[in-house]
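Need residues for this backbone.
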């Protein structure tokens, strides 16, 4: 399978070097959920879809617990998940209040990486991706 792309022109005048230049952008054709993943995994293993669904559902709960306990979660071949915080700045640490100054708590994902023989860093999830221009769209000139 391939990752489709199409072209988009930069119209942001605040980036003069990139203004009016064309850039390739990924096109996502659908969203796949745990049911579809479990069906695919069932075809590649001896485990039943219902068992895979149970494990994936429990994985989400276990990850939530571990992340909220301040731990990183590493899934080999996928990457590391952790929680991050965005907050407003305060002049003094004693003035900081989480209810007022924390803007959000978000998930940070670092994909699993490896180095090739020549020292190039690769992401496990993207290595081998084949790019193909999106068919059937009005390509800009």
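Answer:
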């Amino acid at each position: 399978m391939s990752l489709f792309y199409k072209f988009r022109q930069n119209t942001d005048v605040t980036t003069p070097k990139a203004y009016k230049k064309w850039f390739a952008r990924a096109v996502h054709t659908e969203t796949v959920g745990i049911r579809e993943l479990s069906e695919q995994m069932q075809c590649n293993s001896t485990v039943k879809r219902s068992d895979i669904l149970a494990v994936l559902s429990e994985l989400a709960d276990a990850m939530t617990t571990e992340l909220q306990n301040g731990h990183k979660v590493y899934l080999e071949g996928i990457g590391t998940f952790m929680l991050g915080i965005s907050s407003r700045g305060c002049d003094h640490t004693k003035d900081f209040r989480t209810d007022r100054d924390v803007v959000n708590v978000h998930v940070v994902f670092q994909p699993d990486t490896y180095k090739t023989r020549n020292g190039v860093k690769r992401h496990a999830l993207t290595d081998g991706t084949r790019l193909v221009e999106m068919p059937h769209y009005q390509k800009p000139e």
